[in-house]
Design goal:
By secondary structure, the chain is of the alpha+beta class. Helix content is 17%, strand content 29%. Strands 3, 4, 5, 6, 7, 8, 9, 12, 13 and 14 form a 10-stranded antiparallel beta sheet that branches. A hairpin with a 4-residue loop joins strand 12 and strand 13. The protein is extended. The N and C termini lie far apart (84 Å).
């Protein structure tokens, strides 16, 4: 019906608005079809009457087997060509704790000075609660800390003379008992607490490759060996390993078979197409606005699944053992018409079709016994960077932990850096510029005509001594050339606290390798005249 409106300009404008003849909305909501014969003909043309079975799955019976992990070992640096270089298999039980704790732990590590002081303070607290504070002088006499170096400051130096050494306490309690009588009950309570918060003294063989700052390890699953070539310490998962067909597995691992019936349910996710005619879809998810290229097969498959087949998929839960490779032998689905259907493996006739499958294997879902846990603040960080102007690579020790205290090496250098020559109007000559002592040069050494490696060498300069003082680097260290790319790398040590499925706590120190911040400049120059030099 037309509606006329008068405007201030003196002209009229007309707007057509549909008006319902009745006050009810049922007719519009019902969306009636006034020519059902035409609609049926169009459905027939599009093949909707082909007589396909449109039954819904009611129950599914699945059968399969899971092969458990039985052992692990550090991988040899030469790929296992030399039998003498291959480490022996170390038995592993997933019930004992996460696999990350044994793979990532540092060799021979133990509680640092800060943890030893904290453990001693807790022992003093338990003595006070038990009313045995009178025995504290005897405990301190038997389990005292070594004298701290002169000039040492910090919490460790303050508390060390007042608390016992937790490492010595744990050694005696594990071996039999304390050297001070009458403290068995307190010692037992304290040892239970200590085992949950302190890293083990001997975690096993170290799988860390210091020349690449990466982990290399093998894992035995039945007759298959999974090899982690470049694990960066960011949590073990199925994509961290590949099948190594040339390696020999450890002793046969246990195999668990299963057969169970489950009830499938429809797949639901944000942005799924609505089932009902008048149902409003989620406006916060716009799959059509996804930024995707013609070669991005993964996103194209995801969008096709969500937009076209999203309401045709069903799922059912399946619990598999932690630390296992699970293979489904058969899936038989019974639908609402009591017909049975055998679900074949996707890509059975095309080996190139694989999703979440290990490289070198055609089937199986890997569930690594990984417990990433809570990661603490960095204990040490080393940046690897190239310096094109100096024609060197550098290992920059940014932070280290000394006596339980985190030390910023740049701040420490600014306090002890030698002063330069006083300003001179006519200029002053210097053999070289002074590089901070936490910049450690990596000099290229030729291995052959085509290969070099970087070796850590001392930098001789007046008034400063460049040497590593942390755990990641040592004086005779060397690094493969490809591990110091143009973008650099950042290697850090972090403490990890994880809780396993049985409720137990596990503590270890992991080393992570991350991308760096690009090339850098040390300011190293030779034969310079001040003040005409580029760097101060």
């Amino acid at each position: 019906m037309p509606r006329r409106t008068f405007e201030h300009s003196g002209s009229f404008r007309f707007r057509l608005e549909p008006l319902s003849r009745t006050n009810e909305v049922a007719s519009g909501v019902s969306a009636r079809v006034h020519d059902p014969a035409w609609a049926l003909a169009r459905q027939w043309q599009f093949g909707e009457f082909a007589g396909q079975d449109a039954g819904s799955p009611v129950v599914a019976r699945i059968e399969g087997h899971s092969t458990l992990v039985s052992a692990w070992r550090p991988a040899s640096g030469d790929g296992g060509v030399d039998p003498a270089a291959v480490a022996p298999w170390v038995p592993y039980d997933p019930a004992a704790g996460p696999l990350d704790a044994v793979v990532e732990s540092e060799d021979g590590t133990g509680p640092d000075a800060y943890q030893r002081v904290e453990g001693g303070a807790h022992f003093v607290r338990l003595l006070h609660e038990a009313g045995l504070s009178a025995k504290l002088p005897q405990v301190l006499a038997e389990y005292r800390f070594d004298p701290m170096p002169a000039g040492t400051a910090g919490l460790v130096a303050l508390l060390a003379p007042r608390v016992p050494d937790a490492r010595e306490l744990a050694g005696d309690l594990t071996g039999g008992g304390l050297r001070v009588p009458g403290l068995a009950a307190v010692g037992g309570r304290w040892l239970d607490w200590w085992r949950e918060v302190a890293p083990p003294e001997t975690p096993g063989t170290d799988a860390f490759d210091p020349h690449r700052f990466e982990y290399r390890s093998d894992f035995s699953f039945g007759d298959r060996v999974l090899h982690a070539e470049e694990y960066l310490g960011d949590g073990l998962d199925w994509y961290s390993v590949d099948v190594d067909p040339s390696a020999t597995a450890a002793a046969p691992a246990p195999v668990r078979t299963f057969a169970q019936e489950v009830i499938p349910s429809t797949v639901r996710f944000g942005g799924i197409p609505a089932d009902r005619f008048w149902e409003m879809e989620d406006a916060q998810i716009d799959l059509g606005a996804t930024d995707v290229s013609s070669l991005d097969t993964g996103r194209l498959l995801l969008i096709s699944f969500a937009e076209v087949y999203g309401n045709d998929w069903f799922l059912f839960p399946l619990e598999v053992p932690v630390g296992s490779i699970t293979t489904l032998d058969s899936i038989v689905v019974t639908d609402s018409f009591n017909d049975t259907h055998t679900v074949e493996r996707a890509g059975r006739d095309d080996p190139r079709w694989n999703v979440f499958t290990l490289t070198g294997s055609d089937d199986g879902l890997l569930m690594m016994p990984s417990g990433r846990g809570a990661v603490g603040e960095s204990l040490e960080s080393v940046a690897l960077a190239r310096d094109e102007l100096a024609n060197l690579a550098w290992a920059i020790e940014k932070t280290v932990t000394l006596s339980g205290e985190l030390v910023d090496r740049r701040e420490r250098w600014l306090r002890i850096a030698p002063e330069g020559p006083p300003p001179d109007d006519i200029g002053s000559y210097a053999v070289q510029t002074i590089v901070p002592d936490y910049w450690l040069p990596l000099v290229p050494h030729a291995l052959s005509e085509q290969a070099i490696r970087f070796a850590l060498v001392p930098l001789v300069q007046p008034g400063a001594e460049s040497r590593p003082i942390g755990r990641l680097l040592h004086p005779d260290h060397w690094v493969h050339e490809e591990e110091v790319p143009r973008e650099g790398a950042l290697v850090v040590r972090r403490p990890v606290l994880a809780r396993w499925f049985d409720g137990s706590w596990h503590v270890w120190v992991r080393r992570e390798k991350n991308p760096g911040g690009g090339e850098s400049s040390s300011g190293l120059h030779f034969d310079i005249v001040r003040p005409s030099e580029t760097w101060p």
